[in-house]
Amino acid sequence: MRWLLAAALAALSLGPAQAAEVPADVAAAVKAAMPQMKITEAELKARDGRRYYDVEGVLPDGSEIELDMLQTAAGWQVVEIQRDIAWASAPAQVHAAAQPAWKGPAPARVIESKQTDGSIVYELFAPGRPGTPALEVMLKDGKAEVLKEVWPH
């Protein structure tokens, strides 16, 4: 019975919370990382035994941003900062790395995910397939490569 409960909790998504419902420690970690961000929504998730808060918000210029926060022994830590970008805005190195693997029309959506180690993961979504990236490209130290495994965050 415990393993059934553990399996159910592993895929847990508690649903979106309004900004006023975001726990104080999560809001404080967001403010420390991105002081200008106004929180609009947050969602607690559990994946692979880890607890995350996906915190969405807007910046003063109106652009939307999302912080993925991981719960650690030290508290909530930002593990990536995401925003949607146009495919044309992705760096040339990312286009060059994706070209051999990408078949068909241009990606319908591109998420730029800045990682804490300075790398950036570009998630490319195929038209008509909004749920899962069709391809992920990592840019680090000026070099881009297609990821062979799904990025963990």
N to C succession of SSEs: HEHEEEEHEEEE
User: What portion of residues is helical?
Assistant: 10-25%
Give the end-to-end Cα distance, rounded to a whole number of Å: 29 Å
Parts with pLDDT < 50 across at least 5 consecutive residues: 1-15
Number of domains as seen in the coordinates = 2
Report the sheet with the most strands, covering strand number, pairing sense and barrel closure: 9 strands, antiparallel
Q: Kindly state the mean pLDDT as a whole number?
A: 86
Main sheet: strand order: 1-2-3-4-5-6-7-8-9
Shape: globular
Give the helix tally. 3
What fraction of the residues are assigned to beta strands by DSSP? 35-45%
Structural class: alpha+beta
Q: Could you describe the 3D structure shown?
A:
The protein has 153 residues and is of the alpha+beta class. The protein has 2 domains: 2-81; 86-146, no CATH class. It is built from 3 helices and 9 strands. The protein has helices at 2-10, 24-33, 92-98; strands spanning 13-18, 38-47, 50-58, 64-72, 75-85, 109-115, 120-125, 135-140, 143-146. A 9-stranded antiparallel sheet has the order 1-2-3-4-5-6-7-8-9. A hairpin with a 2-residue loop joins β4 (64-72) and β5 (75-85).
